[in-house]
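Researcher: Please translate sequence to structure tokens.
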Amino acid sequence: MNAKLRIALAILAPALIFWGGYAASQSKFGQPKTIIHISLIKWKADASDAAKQKALDGVKEMAAQIPGIKNIWLKAVRMQPRDYHAAFVIEFENREAADRYAESPVHATWSKQFLAIREASISPQVSN
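Model: Translation complete:
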């Protein structure tokens, strides 16, 4: 290999490595068409720990019975607003799945138990 080619490779190789690393480190994200249902919960003062856990476990039971639920989140790592005590999130495949959840007798039964022990809740839904 001649000297000019070696010098060119010596300059080009680090540049390629740098730009390759830079491109690989860029954040990748998508914009799914699913619907996210977020519920922030403030429990009543007299709600027992067992009743609270039963309500959150009920979200998992609903997910197993209502078609179109893709994922659930049951462990709030950080709560905001801070005066709320718990949260859960349900990801629906589409609007029809979210409507099935809202109109399901399984959801109606769970809601009766849940409403008896919650002081307040905020439940927005988000989609793309």
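Researcher: Any highlights?
Model: The chain is about 50% helix and 25% strand.
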